[in-house]
Amino acid sequence: MSPLFRPASAHLAHFHAGQASSVAVLTWQRRGKKERDVRVLRSPQDFAATAEPRDDPSQTLVFEGNGAHSKVIDNSLSGESVSYYTVFVKNDAGRWRREICTAVPMESDVHWRRAGVEGEGESLGRFREMWTDLDALG
Asked: Is residue 7 domain-resident?
């Protein structure tokens, strides 16, 4: 199954995800200078329709926070062959906006870089860092 992304993320510049054994690592970088709240949900079945995990019992809240660079280590996987992650970002109006939907199969990685972002250096560095984490945890 290939990953699915919104055509453009208004608030995230880089996104990486990988899963090995019972651990997944997700990383991203914020676009712009304004800190925004981020919420990550995971499901073994499908992407989240809303940012509220209580709206769908199959969704698990994996992360909620803010900051320029974020890394989430999800070590609560229970052997799903594919994990469906939905990343929401709170917009200026205070509403959650679905930014990224990605299906991450076991023993795989996803690397997405927003079109128009200059240079690969940091993006590739964060990708390598993610895999170092997976190797150490898996």
From this structure: no
Cβ burial 38-74 (10 Å sphere, 16+ → b, else e): bbbbbbeeebbeebebeebeebbebbeeeeeebebbb
Does residue 28 belong to any structural domain of this protein? yes
Is residue 75 packed enough to be buried (19+ CB in 10 Å), middle (13-18) or exposed (0-12)? exposed
Q: Which residues contact 125 (CB under 8 A, 6 or more apart)?
A: none
Does 114 reside within a domain?
yes
Q: In sequence order, what are the residues at sequence separation of 6 or more whose Cβ sits closer than 8 angstroms to the Cβ of residue 80?
A: 44, 106
Q: What angle do CA 90, 42, 136 make, to 5 degrees?
A: 105
Number of domains in the chain: 1
Q: Which token pair is 104?
A: 């991450």
- Report which secondary-structure segment, H or E, holds 131: helix 121-137
CATH of the domain at 128: 2.60.40.10
Q: Is residue 79 part of a domain?
A: yes
- Residues 40-44 have a mean pLDDT of 93
Reported as a pLDDT band with limits 50, 70 and 90, residue 9 is low
